[in-house]
Amino acid sequence: MFRSILARPTVLQQPSNVLPSSIPPLRRKLHLAPPFLLEDYIPRYHLISSVDAARKRSAAYAHLRRCNLCPRLCDVNRYETTGHCLIGAEKVKVGTIAPHFGEEPCLQGHNGSGSVFFSGCNLRCVFCQNHDIAHQKVGFDLTPEELAEWMVKLQEVGNVHNINFVTPEHVVPQVALAILAAREMGLRVPIVYNTSAFDSLKSLELMDGLVDIYLPDFKVWHNETSKRLLKADAYADTARESIQEMYRQVGDLCFTGDGIAKKGLLVRHLVMPGKEEEGVRIMQWLAEVLGKDVFVNVMEQYYPDAHVGREKRGPKTNKDEKRYSEINRPVSKEEIGVVQKAARDAGLWRFAEPARHGGWNV
Ligand code: SF4
Questions:
Q1: How is the cofactor bound (predicted)?
Q2: Ligand 1 center–CA 135 separation, angstroms
Q3: How many domains, in total, are found in the chain?
Q4: Which residue, 93, 140, 202, 296, is most buried by CB atoms nearer than 10 A?
């Protein structure tokens, strides 16, 4: 098992003239300790000036009129047509809005994370674990103002700990407009940007000052793998660039004393069958480039879905042959262990994981 934030000992300095050197140093037991403990927290979207808010609004509209906002670079006017993501300008399509209890404990807390699951996606992962809403345009349409009303309702009625935008990469302008509208309506909880990491620096520039917690899923290390399994040529390069920018904006994950995360970066990695060496490279990169205090969730819940394991098409194919057969099985405990060990060996120590007492470390 990983050491968690709960278990990390912090040595308190003893004045040498007070205690004999034979007394072992005291060890702080608190799992929430400086520098990761916040006394209080004001969401970043309340700290930007009205001038900067107006600049962001006009930048959002400009992006929609000529959208190159994600690495697909469609260069389309979304008021007239749609690009790769299939979503236009005036409304977003939402699959579900609800308090959600499937996130990390430090995000869902006791009341849930106020999740907005957007339909559509700018990736085409062949194993998509959410393909009913990500690859099919199902759900209901909302303007940014209507979305803002839902955000405030999640806060007031659901008492959620945050607003969690799931798969927002293709609707960043509408999300920016919704956050700015919601702050005028009384929104007070942090914003979570829950992404595949297939973002662009332009979209992250638009989000800078509006997002409190970045929650990227760094999926694969090699561009060849992303080409085959995510249908995106340069995913890995893009993810590395995007995650560095996210970290520059918000830094390490910080909590208030109730154990709820309020600001910072939390990186996820879903271990995939036969791809554990890519997970190892991701863990090493995180420790080397972002530092050993980066908060990580090594996820174990991969299962074959979407196109994986379906019959191959075409007149000459053998009926027994399955598509993407190399990932058509659950991930093994050994594979997960390899990535977990690599994370520890790289010096990472802040993990989202079940606690030994059966509950959750937060
Ligand atoms: S957000 Fe949509 S329209 Fe814009 S570049 Fe990406 S896929 Fe294309």
A1: Binds 1 [4Fe-4S] cluster. The cluster is coordinated with 3 cysteines and an exchangeable S-adenosyl-L-methionine.
A2: 14
A3: 1
A4: 296
Q: What pLDDT band is residue 81 in, cutting at 50, 70 and 90?
A: very high
Tens of pLDDT, residues 93-111: 999 999 999 999 999 999 9
Residue 38 lies in a domain: no
What single DSSP character describes residue 157? Answer: T
Calculate how far, in angstroms, residue 64's C-alpha sits from the geometric centre of ligand 1: 9
125 is known to lie in a ligand binding site? yes
Answer yes or no: is 327 within a domain: yes
70: Cβ below 6 Å to ligand 1? yes
Would 270 be classed as within a structural domain? yes
Q: Which domain holds residue 268?
A: 44-311+322-346
The reply to whether 70 sits in an annotated binding site is no
CATH number at residue 184: 3.20.20.70
Whether residue 9 is contained in a domain is answered as no
Across residues 180-190, what is the average pLDDT? Answer: 98
Handedness of CA 302, 1, 225, 165 (dihedral sign): positive
What pTM, to 2 d.p., does this model score?
A: 0.89
